[in-house]
């Protein structure tokens, strides 16, 4: 049974009106979208992205959609992106959780991660279709599995594995839930999802992701989310919306992975802080990775 999990950062209801002036893509991101969509004219590209944004905002009025965050590739901002791409060349599965319109999967594919080994997953099934609309493709380039990460039938807590699954060959087209991937994922990527949930749910999610990771040294769980200077509740106003987050500090986030989810010494936790600009407001973001030793 799916439990009702209330995110801390809820879609605003009624939604705040959209504002085209928040559209802001860096030159590199514009080039990425030109290559991906084949729309070469920048004004036409902007109109296209805004059209898709409107449709996505109807599905879920998240601040990240209103602030055009959903169009920025995140995975390539990680300090160990090269390591992630190398795992791909060695046959690792990449799972992107809370994939929204699939920008990170497409970025990784463009940079050489084999599409047939990528799985994107989101609670909103229609984001898959909207991703195809955004990238002007007739189908998702990789596999998409819809589901709720707090539904144990879809993703349940499991201890990290210490041995390779006996049936080493997995056809990801046959995967129906993330539980089918237990101990098999070489790269778990999760961007701007943890901060949607309270402390207890963050721990539950981290434990479930730990169970998905392959025990092969170099396997990695990574992502980004909003960070606080110390562990606790943070209140901020973003684009006129009052938002409440539960944030770990650098220390408590590291301890959660190295000592709670994994036995101490089983993983290396690396972190770096940055800030992202949403509608002219900069707020602190933690980029992090947990690598199996
Ligand atoms: C803030 S957006 C981040 C999207 C994207 N990863 C990024 O970095 O731009 C959070 C995403 O998590 C998804 N999500 C929220 N709750 C979820 C749940 N319980 N299970 C699976 N996905 C969920 C939302 O639908 C949304 O696409």
Q: How are the SSEs ordered, and which strands pair?
A:
Layout (H helix, E strand, L loop, with lengths): L26 H11 L4 H18 L3 H4 L14 H9 L3 E5 L5 H8 L7 E5 L3 H9 L8 E4 L38 E7 L7 H14 L7 E7 L5 E7 L2 E7 L2 H8 L9 E12 L2 E12 L1
Parallel strand pairs: 1-2, 1-4, 2-3, 4-5
Antiparallel strand pairs: 5-9, 6-7, 8-9
Bound molecules: S-adenosylmethionine.
What does this protein structure show overall?
With 293 residues, this protein is an alpha/beta fold. It has two domains: 22-66; 69-292, 3-Layer(aba) Sandwich (Rossmann fold). The protein contains eight helices and nine strands. The protein has helices spanning 27-37, 42-59, 63-66, 81-89, 103-110, 126-134, 199-212, 250-257; strands spanning 93-97, 118-122, 143-146, 185-191, 220-226, 232-238, 241-247, 267-278, 281-292. It has a seven-stranded mixed beta sheet, with helices on both faces. Strands 6-7 form a two-stranded antiparallel ribbon. A hairpin with a 2-residue loop joins strand 6 (232-238) and strand 7. It is globular, with a radius of gyration of 18 Å. S-adenosylmethionine binds next to loops.
């Amino acid at each position: 049974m799916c439990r009702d999990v209330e995110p801390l950062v809820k879609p605003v209801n009624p939604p705040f009106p959209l504002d085209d002036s928040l559209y802001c893509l860096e030159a590199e991101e514009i080039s990425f979208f030109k290559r991906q969509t084949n729309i070469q004219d920048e004004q036409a590209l902007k109109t296209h992205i805004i059209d898709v944004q409107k449709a996505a905002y109807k599905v879920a009025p998240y601040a990240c959609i209103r602030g055009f965050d959903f169009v920025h590739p995140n995975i390539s901002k990680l300090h160990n992106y090269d390591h992630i791409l190398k795992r791909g060349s060695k046959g690792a599965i990449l799972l992107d959780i809370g994939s929204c319109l699939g920008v990170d999967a497409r970025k990784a594919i463009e940079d050489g991660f084999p599409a047939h080994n990528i799985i994107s997953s989101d609670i909103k099934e229609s984001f898959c279709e909207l991703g195809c609309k955004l990238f002007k493709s007739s189908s998702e380039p990789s596999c998409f599995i819809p589901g709720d990460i707090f539904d144990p039938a879809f993703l349940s807590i499991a201890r990290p594995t210490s041995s390779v699954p006996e049936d080493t060959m997995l056809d990801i087209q046959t995967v129906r839930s993330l539980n089918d991937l237990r101990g098999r994922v070489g790269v778990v990527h999760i961007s701007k999802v943890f901060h949607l949930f309270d402390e207890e749910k963050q721990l539950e999610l981290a434990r479930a992701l730990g169970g998905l990771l392959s025990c092969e040294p170099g396997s990695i769980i990574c992502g980004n989310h909003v960070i606080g200077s110390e562990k606790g509740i943070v209140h901020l106003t973003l684009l006129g919306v009052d938002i409440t987050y539960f944030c770990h500090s650098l220390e408590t986030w590291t301890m959660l992975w190295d000592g709670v989810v994994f036995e101490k010494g089983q993983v290396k936790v690396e972190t770096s802080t940055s800030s992202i600009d949403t509608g002219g407001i900069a707020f602190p973001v933690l980029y992090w990775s947990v690598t199996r030793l």
